[in-house]
Design brief:
This is MFS transporter. The protein is mainly alpha-helical. It is built from 22 helices and two strands. The longest helix has 30 residues.
Length: 516
């Protein structure tokens, strides 16, 4: 990519990765599970189901992702991220549809969510960020931030999309059931929108370039599928939101839904209108490009791997658990539910800015130091929310700080893995560390709720007898302490171990010596 901007050449890869992650396993099931609680309870409560039974799926899903992420990372190293993501988009879409098969059997319900975790693991950032990290060197942090922005955007829109289908009988096309129809139509989103874009644009540096690929000759009919799928998503979201605006006024959450609708039209429009026939990064003549780094087994033997893996469990717990509980925290402090919901939507805005600003900074400054500063921000916010009599102004500042920190977790993880372990086995190492991250993020919301409600920690309905008799003040203060303490080890990671530019210079020098 000599004499050319990384963004001018790599934007199709970045665009396809962003849409793929946004419609993947990480956001789609988590953002929409709340929509399905009322209809599932209506149908299955007479069979002995509780809300806890429905939310148990998240724990099973988490353990499935914990097991699947390292495996899919290793498969991506062997067969290439492109092949893994294309296959996994299909299996993920189908597994989302399979959730409609739930007939009230709790074992079947758990099995379907476990299947979802394995079938969709290839749509995690573990695979999609590998091509992005390889195409972008000088602007890797910024590129990773952009690639991960779409999780919040598509996740928020999917919630409105699913709610519209559930609440409108005209769309109850599967078994005359709203929730079954919604799961099937949610499964169509990655197939219709993400798959065509990834097929054309997602290419690692060792794949056949888009410039040389015959499939790019069929760009317009292939992308027409993505455009139609995106327009259907946007149309149904607008149909869901517009009556709410008429009833409650243009509140912030509704305004952001319109903004997000406009944003999701940008990626497919860019690929339709601009030239996507780009070649991967090129290096100077005489340079042999060999991706530097450690294998997964070599990484396991380093102390830095375990510092990152263990640190991200409490980090993901503290940051991830508060977000779905923000409304409960605010109402606990006397703020009305309507106002709490509006304030909670600010998290999405802060996540977007956190990813862009954080990505910009880690390209220019030492990433662990930036990570410490960014992740200390939610710790302070948790302490602020724990104080009695929190008002709307304080809550707004705290929520923005939480979202700002939450927006950079994936970015920092991906960036630091590339810098401390290299790109040789990037996906496999990322997958292994992501598994630890998934434990905290997946189990955190229910753990935080159990402690705050005074029940003590439960797991799959079993009372573990841990930390009973506490409230939100204790829960938030302890989470703030845990978060701050768990970020300190990042400061001991030291200098980067792998730098692509230094590696290129070394290889060039070796080539020149050999020639002499």
């Amino acid at each position: 990519m000599a004499n050319k901007s990384e963004f001018s050449e790599g934007w199709p890869v970045l665009t396809a990765a962003a849409v793929g992650v946004g419609l993947g396993l990480s956001p789609l099931p988590f953002y929409t599970v709340g929509v399905f609680i009322p209809p599932l309870m209506q149908e299955f409560a007479p069979m002995g189901w509780s809300v806890g039974d429905i939310l148990n799926a998240l724990a099973i899903y988490t353990f499935g992702a914990f097991a699947a992420a390292p495996l899919v990372g290793m498969v991506a190293e062997k067969f290439g991220a492109r092949k893994v993501t294309l296959i996994s988009i299909i299996t993920f879409g189908l597994s989302m549809m399979s959730l409609a098969l739930n007939n009230g059997s709790k074992p079947l319900y758990i099995f379907l969510w476990f299947l979802l975790a394995f079938a969709g693991a290839g749509t995690l950032p573990v695979t999609f960020t590998r091509p992005v990290a390889n195409w972008f060197v000088k602007n890797r942090g910024m590129a990773l931030g952009i690639a991960l922005i779409a999780t919040g955007v598509f996740g928020a829109l999917a919630k409105f999309y699913a709610q519209f289908i559930v609440s409108n009988e005209a769309f109850h096309i599967i078994g005359n059931s709203g929730w079954r129809s919604a799961y099937v139509m949610l499964g169509c989103l990655p197939l219709a929108i993400a798959l065509p874009m990834a097929w054309l644009g997602l290419r690692d540096v060792d794949d056949v370039s888009a410039k040389d690929a015959n499939i790019t000759k069929f760009k317009y009919p292939i992308l027409a599928v993505s455009m139609i799928g995106t327009l259907i998503l946007v149309t149904l979201v607008i149909k869901q939101v517009t009556p709410l605006v008429g009833a409650h006024g243009l509140r912030l959450e509704y305004f952001m839904a319109y903004v997000f609708c406009a944003m999701v039209l940008i990626p497919v429009s860019l690929m339709l209108l601009l030239d996507i026939k780009k070649a991967p990064p090129q290096v100077e003549k005489g340079t042999v490009v060999v991706l530097p780094g450690l294998t997964l087994m070599e990484a396991f033997k380093t102390w830095r791997f375990w510092v990152l893996a263990i640190s991200f469990v409490p980090i993901s717990y503290s940051v991830g658990a508060i977000i779905p509980n923000i409304e409960r925290v605010l109402t606990f402090n006397g703020i009305s539910m309507d106002e709490a919901v509006g304030l909670a939507t600010l998290t999405g805005l802060a996540v977007l800015s956190g990813r862009i600003i954080g990505g910009y900074l880690i390209d220019r400054f030492w990433a662990p130091g930036v990570a410490f500063a960014f992740l200390a921000s939610p710790a302070i916010a948790l302490w602020m929310l724990a104080q009695p009599g929190v008002d709307a102004t304080t809550a707004t500042i705290a929520i923005l700080m939480i979202g700002f920190g939450a927006g950079v977790e994936y970015d920092f993880m991906a960036f630091m893995i590339s810098k401390y372990f290299g790109m040789k086995s990037y996906s496999a190492i990322y997958g292994a560390i992501y598994g630890f991250f998934a434990l905290g993020a997946g189990l955190g919301p229910s753990i935080m709720t159990d402690i705050a409600d005074g029940r003590g920690i439960h797991f799959l309905g079993a009372n573990l007898g841990i930390l009973p008799g506490h409230d939100w003040h204790f829960t938030l203060v302890s989470a703030a302490i845990v978060l701050f303490v768990s970020t300190i080890p990042l400061l001991f990671l030291g200098k980067y171990q792998y730098d692509f530019e230094d590696h290129k210079k070394k290889k060039t020098a070796e080539t020149e010596v050999a020639a002499e």
